[in-house]
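Replying to the earlier thread about multi-chain prediction with a worked example.

Input:
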Amino acid sequence: MAWFKRSTKGIFTSTEDKKEAPDGVWNKCPNCKKALHYSEQVEHKYVCQYCNYHLRVGSKEYFEIFFDDNAFAELFGNLTSGDPLNFTDTKSYKDRLVESYKKTGLKDAIRAAHGKIDGQDLVIACMDFNFIGGSMGSVVGEKIARSIDYCIEHKIPFLMISKSGGARMMEAAFSLMQMAKTSAKLALLSKAKIPYISLLTDPTTGGVTASYAMLGDINIAEPGALIGFAGPRVIKETIKKDLPKGFQTSEFVLEHGFLDFIVDRREIKNKLSTFIRIMNN
Amino acid sequence: MNTSFDFEKPIADLQQQVEKVKQVAEKTKVDMSATLKELQDKIQKTKLDIYNNLTGWQKVQISRHPERPYTLQYIEMICDDFIEMHGDRTVKDDKAIVGGFGTIAGQSVMIIGHQKGVNTKMRQYRNFGMANPEGYRKALRLMKLAEKFNKPVITFIDTPGAFPGLEAEERGQGEAIARNLLEMSVLNVPIICIIVGEGASGGALGIGIGDKVYMLEHTWYSVISPESCSSILWRSWDFKEQAAECLKLTADNMYHNKLIDGIIKEPLGGAHQDPKAMAETIKSQLLTDLSELKAKKIEKLIDERIEKFCSMGVVVED
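Result:
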């Protein structure tokens, strides 16, 4: 027998009278499922204050976290994707792009900007996962390449924030060659002895891991991020065994020697600013 | 074993007819040479018809033909001398990538390439041409050695992809490939790369940054295999033919899109029909390029190499 009994049946509140929270004010932590208010998220740099889960955020939030007073000049904001192969799978690439422009308000899966971090110049190129899975196509490669040129010209350190599923299939071999392009430019940056910081966030896989994300003078990551070359599902199918717990997390990658350190998003600005100060000194 | 594909059936049928006619001729002692000649001509015409009009997927199939020559076989046919070298000096010796110093028509070079196996046992031993990080690090070690002694580097690419395994991730598959891309783009010696079979994604590119990048006529090169592309974009394995078309992965497409420097013609029907002739063609291409590249100033060569890869990609500026 039920403990409580509904005395009257049905819901009587009319649709107009229903009180709904506006979109984006409340967010649920995907890890601990607790509700997070928008103001709390901003205060905690989009990290869940209950379980320290780092929410997936985009370039807008990262620029806000890093740049002093959220002041920055966006670089190469006029670049958009062409459709060199006229690619159509279940949907045409052109339609996918238009859909993503509308959904995200972004022009591609990356934005670059020049600003200051504790008074020191820094160029950041940051990927947006919401735009076709943060996939790397010609625009991503080109913006990174131009950002590096900009850093060499103005002698400014470069921070790359990776968040991507890998290469963009709809640009096929053009995407593949962005790995070559970005790596070649990084060789020039290295020659110019300008610091390159690679920050890997959740997730960083595929061709992005196999090019610029792993080539930092320091490679760092946010806690708990998925970082790897092959995706976990592919590996599981290949070796026909379950993957160990914690496989391909930031902590795993640190343990195997491919990261310099893992840093909490709430302390990242401070730590990087110190690093840059040491390098500039 | 004589592996042939569905699209080659018209040729096989004609060849059967030839056999029949020969038998009849022998039995009846009637002169059938005219008929035979006619059939042979027809075979030749059919072959030209088929092999000059292959679809993307058919080229993928030919590139995987089990009798196609692999790196070590090419080395044997092209080099006067060759000394294979092993190991990455850190973890182990990867069997999916081979390399060593050799001479081609008297010129010393470093040759590195993916290696597939010729039978089931060897295929396993070579891990189907799928390298682990130590393979890419062995390749880099050998390239650095070539740089030190000022010898040009030649790479043969033929891989279904870098190995997606547990240990590969532990030892930094991504980092190993990334490092090679960076180092190869500024390596102080000429580099020539040839895709001789499959050119799958980062696994291929990991030894694929060169002053000259060629594809053999019936090979493919792209960011993903058509099967995986089909499974991801169509959520089914059944669209591989369509995916192969969409990816524009043939040598013609790649050359047209300015992503490679040239196409090396294969013997009619594919490299496996006449490996010797294939090796000769490759050798003469290599000799032409070696003399051209060696004559250039290395600084200029590196600038051009970087410039070439940096110009790849299509963006719209508004």
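Chain B has 14 helices and nine strands.

Feel free to reuse this layout for your own posts.
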